[in-house]
Design a protein that fits this description.
About 45% of the residues lie in helices and about 15% in strands. By secondary structure, it is an alpha/beta fold. It folds into 3 domains: about 60 residues, 434 Repressor (Amino-terminal Domain) (Orthogonal Bundle); about 130 residues, Response regulator (Rossmann fold); about 130 residues, 3-Layer(aba) Sandwich (Rossmann fold), CATH 3.40.50.2300. Helix 1 packs across helix 2. The chain starts with about 20 loop residues before the first helix and ends in a 10-residue tail after the last strand.
């Protein structure tokens, strides 16, 4: 009979503190056979959920590394860097990772790419799996992560860097830019054009500090001007054109007195979705509604009219992240935090509000 996780006792731990845990230790702690441990780690689909959970908990408690990865972990020379991104669907993460790979490849390293779909528990599980396969160091997106992630990385001595944001408290190595300041500057520009009614189309903020900070930048700029975002002028959704277009359709249904005259997307996909909905409804851009985005992608720049957007350091982040992890693995000095510049690219999708 399997032991409950509440009954896993210290008597099952390795007797010598300096000894490296093995599969037998995991089996004793989980209350299963060593063959079951092997199946749970190598062919988990052949093991029931309860047993897999017991084995995984024992592996985590013992910090057990399967034999195949143990040599790589001891030598710290697998030459693999883990890049874990929120989604493969958003092209910017691919561009950042490509820039990172270029630098790493020149130094003999390879990138192992994974996604977590904005699920921070999934990010933690993926990181554990890559550590067991001997990955040397990690690059993560954003500043918000499960606290257990940092404990895991510290326990195994895995260097890491956070990207697309700069940790204001300096707790973690980070490379990025000030997302809040970027949208603050964009919103201020629209306010100077005379806009007072704003709309915001945003990615969901759960597990996504970039979207949260960009929305906060808009709200802060409005508050300083004595303005505010009306609840019915804000919409959240996934990052795809079909969804973002539908989000804007909702804003266009508002009566003329309440409909925003300026709409900001927390990235260019949201802004282009807004433009598609406006064209569909016969709403002039920028005559009736000004539209602006963030990240200055080709998707926005090639619209008619071309999209005003925030140029963010997409490839610079990737190169800087690669250079930092290489420096740390080679024992060289490195900059703990790097704040890279952004700028506003003004194009003809924005103008004064309708008179």
């Amino acid at each position: 009979m399997l032991e409950s996780t509440d009954l896993l006792q210290e008597k099952h731990l390795p007797t010598s503190p300096s000894s490296r845990p093995n599969a037998k230790d995991v089996a004793r702690l989980a209350g299963v056979s060593t063959a079951t441990v092997s199946r749970a780690l190598n062919t988990p689909e052949q093991v029931d959920v309860q047993t897999r959970q017991l084995v995984q908990e024992a592996v985590t408690k013992l910090r057990y590394v399967p034999h195949g990865a143990a040599k790589a972990l001891r030598s710290a020379r697998s030459q693999m860097i883990g890049a874990i991104v929120p989604s493969f669907d958003y092209a910017l993460y691919a561009r950042t990772t490509s820039a990172m790979q270029t630098v790493l490849d020149a130094k003999g390293y390879s990138v192992v790419l994974a996604e977590h779909h904005y699920d921070l528990k999934a990010e933690l599980r993926t990181t554990e799996q890559l550590i067991r396969h001997g990955v040397d160091a990690f690059v993560f997106v954003g500043l918000s992560h499960d606290p257990a992630l940092f404990s895991l990385l510290e326990n195994y001595g895995r260097p890491y860097v956070l990207t697309w944001g700069v940790d204001p408290l300096g707790r973690h190595p980070s490379i990025g830019f000030d997302n809040r300041a970027a949208t603050f500057a964009l919103t201020r520009h629209l306010i100077t054009l005379g806009h007072t009614r704003f709309g915001l189309l945003s990615a969901r903020t759960e597990g996504n500090d970039r979207a949260m900070e960009r929305g906060a930048g808009v709200r802060t700029a409005l508050a300083q001007a004595g303005l505010a975002l009306a609840d019915d002028c804000v919409a959240y959704g996934s990052i795809d054109l079909a969804t973002t277009t539908e989000m804007m359709r909702g804003l266009l249904k508002l009566d003329a007195a309440h409909r925003p005259t300026a709409v900001i997307g927390t990235n260019d996909v949201f802004a282009v979705g807004a433009m598609l909905a406006c064209r569909e409804a016969g709403v002039s851009i920028p005559g009736d509604i000004s539209v602006a985005g963030c990240d200055n992608t080709d998707l926005g720049a090639t619209q008619t009219p071309p999209l005003t957007s925030i140029r963010t350091p997409i490839t610079e982040i990737g190169r800087a992240a690669a250079e930092q992890v290489i420096a740390r693995l080679e024992g060289r000095s490195y900059a703990h935090s790097q704040s890279l510049p952004f700028d506003i690219v003004i194009r003809s999708s924005v103008g004064p509000p309708p008179s």
